[in-house]
Amino acid sequence: MIRIAAVVAALSVLAPIAAAETLKVPAGADAQERLQQALLDAKPGDVVEIGSGRFDLTDGLSLDVDRVTVRGAGPDKTILSFKGQLGAGEGLLVTSDDVVLRGFAVEDSRGDGIKSKGADRIVYKDIRVEWTGGPKETNGAYGVYPVSSSTILIDGVTVKGASDAGIYVGQSERIVVRNSFVSHNVAGIEIENSNHADVYGNTATQNTGGILVFDLPNLPRMNGGGVRVYGNKVFANDTPNFAPKGNIVATVPMGTGVLVMANDGVHVFDNDLSEHATANVIVMSYRERYDDPKYNPYPRHIVVSGNRHGRAGFAPGVEGGGFLTAAFGGAAPPVWWDGSGAIDALGLHVADPVPVLSLGLAPGAPTSSAKPAKVELNAPAAPRPAAVTLPAAMEAAAR
Questions:
Q1: Cα dist. 279→126, 231, 253 in Å?
Q2: 355-385: pLDDT as tens digits
Q3: Domain limits at 340?
Q4: Phi, psi of 396 (to 5 degrees)
Q5: 3 state SS for 255-268
Q6: CATH at residue 285
Q7: Does residue 2 belong to any structural domain of this protein?
Q8: pTM of the full structure
Q9: Count of domains in the chain?
Q10: How far, in Å, CA of 314 to CA of 255, rounded?
Q11: Is 38 domain-assigned?
Q12: Is the residue at 3 inside a domain?
């Protein structure tokens, strides 16, 4: 009894645990200071509620507190405008875990729209990021940009105008990108150097390329794979490439539906693919010089099956594109492979009932050396990766 009483007495002098609060930030004057102060004042469990209206901001915002929800009134009602941004950074930077971002828009940031770095278990729900002046090289690179993270949900996001990728997930694992709309970006959706990702139920149209999955050398996280791209509508990705020169996506030809490069275990299935001037699906190796001994430049265990193909290959945006259309009777096949490596060794499998074009290229060879021919990519199909499952709390937060 004495011991219990002593413990109770000791606990009684501690400060009470604060209840979760809702920090409301209405539109109006001094929006920059009031919104950033709310993000600084937030404590774990709090909600930062941003009101309806346009918030004219002159600097980027940041959040580094765990378990905070940032909630607006809707992506067309709560608008964070960075048109007057003075610095070159992102609109919003998140560096904390268990964060939910939902129901607001970020417009015209000088850099990326929303970036989360090292932020595990983050939810992006009903977010819009847009550069309202249309596609321009000077637009920010990425719309929604989680990187170096684990357990990511991107659901119901719209991105327009990114000069690299609308939705980009890099060097991460356990990823779901679903029910989102991307248009007028260079790449609509990009999964880079990441593992265990599901990309489904999205619409990608009027980008340069619709959905890209690839690995690059000389990055902290390597050997991406275990990606399922399925149930998406990918059509008419016909925006001329406006990426700054030197960016890897600057090489993506206009009119590309799905591109898989130097990745392992990517399954592309049950998608609607059509109206791509170059190809509905491209599977290729990394073609630039590199000095990373751990890097594998080849696509491995790629499976393309059960997709519905519409028109493609009618005006390939590559060197010799006119030759390709002429050689194949007015349209190149809808699925391309660059031809590097051996089919069986790479485990490449295409089961769609459409022709496959091999460009006959070795890694690093110029396109002018191509010897195009129809081929069959008929290595045994690799097992499909398991579905990505997310914590129940994340799914609840996205309802």
A1: 31, 18, 9
A2: 999 998 876 666 666 789 999 999 999 999 9
A3: 55-388
A4: -65, -40
A5: CEEEEEECCEEEEE
A6: 2.160.20
A7: no
A8: 0.94
A9: 1
A10: 10
A11: no
A12: no
